[in-house]
């Protein structure tokens, strides 16, 4: 499979995920401005370790994520909680330090502009949690 490549962002633009499959973790990235009419949710979660052994499909390419993020995305998809979703580890190009610096400064606005914010602390250890 092909690796994923980011398209550059314009000033004051962010990326949000749009699911393209009801069963698999497959998405396309949509560029929007925070505060635009597009309603999106944001995910706040613990990154866990930086080992990224789990692939998702992103704009037709492979993108690798942590187990904790995979679990969160899987749960949100199962519950059909978000049509558009902002996730820092995916929506910000973590390798592009300039973009990362600009986007981190926008994070308060990104969360404030989200229709909903989901908090993921991890999978419960048992079904009663």
TrEMBL record:
Residues 40-128 form the Heterokaryon incompatibility domain. This is Heterokaryon incompatibility domain-containing protein. It comes from the Eukaryota. InterPro entries: HET (IPR010730), HetReg/Transcr_Mod (IPR052895). It comes from Glonium stellatum. Pfam families: HET. The lineage of its organism: Eukaryota, Fungi, Dikarya, Ascomycota, Pezizomycotina.
